[in-house]
Amino acid sequence: MAEALALPWTNFSKFTSMAKVFTSPGLRQTASVISLKAFSLANKVTKIKMPEDPSGKETREVLRLWCFNLSYISRTWQFLILTSLTFAFYLVYGYMQELIFKLEGFRPFGWYLTLVQFAYYTLFGVAELQLRDDKTRKIPMKMYLLLAFLTVSTMGLSNTAVGYLNYPTQVIFKCCKLIPVLVGGILIQSKRFSLIDITACICMSVGLILFTLADNAVSPNFNTYGIVLISVALCADGAIGNVQEKTLKQYGASNGEMVLYSYGIGFIYILAGLVASNNLLPAFSFCQQYPIETYGYAVIFSVTGYLGLYIVLTLVTSFGALIAVTVTTCRKAVTIVLSFIFFTKPFTHQYLWSGLVVVLGIYLNLYSKNKTNWDAKIVHLLQKLGLSNRRKILEPENIV
């Protein structure tokens, strides 16, 4: 990328003379557009940026969502659209998941539900692949074996844990994956996170843990086996976001390809496990007795889950794993509220202040990602309210 050149700012004539130097025909590259990157009166430096594209047009990352091209809208609108769709699909997904486990006797068959879910995801992936011109696999198979294992771990164990824990408790445990994502980002991708990011994740996790304690106090339904299941799913969930992000960017594969192979191989893993444990036939016989409440609901559960997964993968690719996890964590908070509304549960005020700690973590994370813009807006607001001491700046024309 063309580097930004720093020029001493003394007066406008010197600046224009230097601009003429850049457009000199003797240089190999001609700057068609010279943009002022920053102007600082404190150190009297102006940065001039020469664009990489000779035409002077900014290059944008291609962002496609199914047949829609979102590359020509602002990053803010891209984020808002993806976030809204994530909420819409996964709220229905969470409702159907809890509704299925409300069926009497379904509790031991969480892995069978995951098998059905993976079967639908594989079919959706095959259908999507047929609509693409490029059908070649870009990610190595050994990488898909790892991705499939992590996917089976996070979704299978999470689905099974619903039968042994209160649904809000299961959701809250999954929200704590912000810390595994940070650790995974450091270990897997050698990323560095700011103190604000770490503080935000700690706030969110502490708030959600306090929410769990409140739930345990008013409606104790904890099971050691369920806690072990959701804890292992939490670790796998924290690792999979970083692995997906690194793999997608390294090999340039599509989301559809990753979904097809990850869930197709994961289906084989689960099927082999159910056959080996002799749990396949009992689950199949039970679901035959309640086809609407099991297979019927599983269709809606799988369709909304697949569409939501596609959106989250797009978020991971475009905005990174930490932003994607923050969005899904907020969605889980809304899911918990709706769970209390649609399914009768006891309530305590500890839920409220525990939720405020989570909100604090969310805003700290958003501040970390937009620190420069937010600082400028805060300073402007304080100056407008007369709460900030504004030092008088001597402009060149004011110096006698």
What does this structure look like?
The protein is mostly helical and about 400 residues long. It has helices at about 10-20, 75-100, 110-130, 140-160, 165-175, 180-190, 195-220, 225-250, 255-275, 280-290, 290-320, 320-340, 350-370, 370-385; strands at about 5-10, 35-40, 45-50, 65, 70. The strands form two sheets. The chain has a three-stranded antiparallel beta sheet with strand order 1-3-2, with no helix packed on it. A hairpin with a 4-residue loop joins β2 (about 35-40) and β3. α7 (about 195-220) packs antiparallel against α13. The radius of gyration is 26 Å and the shape is globular. It starts with a strand and ends in a 16-residue tail after the last helix. The model is unreliable at about 1-60 and about 390-400 (pLDDT under 50).
